[in-house]
Design goal:
The chain has helices at about 5-25, 75-85, 105-130, 170-175, 240-250, 280-290, 300-305, 320-330; strands at about 30-35, 40, 45-50, 60, 65, 90, 135-140, 155-160, 165, 185-190, 195-200, 205, 210, 215-220, 225-230, 260-265, 265-270, 275, 295-300, 315-320. With about 350 residues, it is an alpha+beta fold. The protein folds into two domains: about 35-65 and about 105-130 and about 225-330, Ribosomal Protein S5, domain 2 (2-Layer Sandwich); about 135-220, PDZ domain (Pdz3 Domain, Roll), CATH 2.30.42. The strands form seven sheets. The protein has a five-stranded mixed β-sheet with strand order 2-4-16-19-20, sandwiched between helices. β19, α7 (about 300-305) and β20 (about 315-320) form a beta-alpha-beta unit. α3 (about 105-130) runs parallel beside α5 (about 240-250). It is globular.
């Protein structure tokens, strides 16, 4: 073996070792990748009782992002591979997951976000249609083993705490914290139409406040029954705006999309205001690959859109549900030049 051959062999061996080490060395990042889409106007996705529904025509895709699971540690080699892929992004792990957060905790949290987004979407769409949709306070989650476990249930509507009516989540928090840890709280809830008066013990939080081990959030009292049936593997809040559009289209005469292929993303509140989400570039890439013609992006995400691979797809900036409706109707009629667009270059 010549000296040159020996040197090359040694360098090759070192390279193999370095690659092997890189494949094992964890890094504090996760990867965002384009995820699957689902048509919110597909068969049986939106169901309604108590109001007339109408046929729709077109595709209204909610978009998703694949993320490195919480129980998987990204290695250096995989991170470098993602870094050179224009369709993927490297994100600091602590911006996505809490310290020691488990995959099951993430799944449960995403399921709660999904339910909340569906409720907000229903409220926004029904209010856009002129329905009165009052706000309520609901039990969003109950901590296993807490005083509330076995007494309060997710979905309970909180009517009163200690004999006082409550109208916001903060009212409930303040009423519980007015107690000393160890005291009991009387809570009146509506559970599927049955009014129950419940007594719940309190314990001390890490900060010393009284707590019962239940989370509360804004809920709504709906005048008609609207259900969203979506793949349970999809979680998080970012499909809210698309759900609201699908509900609106289902409850209005005429096919709003008129055969158009539309995709989008954005959280939404009960007043129809659309907010920013993560992974916008990956969602745009997935939609472009599916021959989508119009992508609806939150205006607050427009700066993040720069550099996204959109192909011939128009990316429209929206701030409200009303903006989204106007954009889809304009696109369906072939008039899109005046729509506010997010620049991708």
């Amino acid at each position: 073996m010549t000296r040159r051959t020996a040197t090359l062999a040694f360098a090759g061996a070192i390279l193999v070792v370095l690659v092997a080490v890189a494949a094992l060395l964890p890094v504090p990042y996760v990867v965002y990748s384009p995820g699957p889409m689902e048509n919110a106007l597909g068969d049986d996705v939106i169901s309604v009782e108590g109001a007339e529904t109408f046929d729709t025509d077109g595709v209204l895709n909610l978009t998703t992002v694949g993320v490195t699971p919480a129980d998987v540690r990204l290695d250096l080699l995989s991170a470098l591979q993602a870094w050179v892929d224009p369709n993927r992004a490297i994100v600091p792990r602590d911006l996505v997951y809490g310290k020691d957060e488990t995959a099951e905790e993430v799944r449960e949290e995403n399921a709660r976000y999904m339910q909340r987004s569906q409720d907000s979407a229903k409220a926004a769409a029904l209010r856009e249609l002129g329905y009165d949709v009052p706000e309520t306070v609901v039990i969003e989650m109950v901590v296993d083993g807490s005083p509330a476990d076995g007494t309060l249930e997710p979905g309970d509507t909180v009517e009163e705490v200690d004999g006082e009516a409550v109208t916001s989540p903060q009212d409930v928090i303040d009423a519980v914290r007015a107690h000393e840890p160890g005291e009991t709280v009387e809570v009146v809830v509506d559970r599927s139409g049955e009014v129950l008066t419940l007594t719940v013990d309190t314990v001390a939080s890490d900060e010393g406040h009284a707590q019962v081990g239940a989370g509360v959030s804004v809920g709504f009292k709906f005048p008609i029954q609207v259900e969203v049936h979506i793949n349970e593997r999809i979680g998080g809040p970012s499909a809210g705006m698309i759900f609201a559009l699908a509900i609106y289209d289902t409850l209005t005469p005429g096919a709003m999309l008129d055969g158009l292929r539309v995709a989008g993303t954005g959280v939404i509140n009960g007043d129809g205001e659309v907010g920013a989400i993560g992974g916008i570039q990956q969602k745009i890439a997935a939609a472009a690959d599916d021959d989508v013609e119009l992508f609806l992006a939150p205006a607050s995400n427009c700066d993040d859109v720069v550099g996204a691979r959109n192909g011939d797809m128009q990316v429209v900036s929206i701030e409200t549900l009303d903006d989204a409706i106007e954009a889809v109707e304009a696109a369906a009629s072939g008039v899109t030049d005046s729509l506010p667009s997010c620049s991708v270059s």
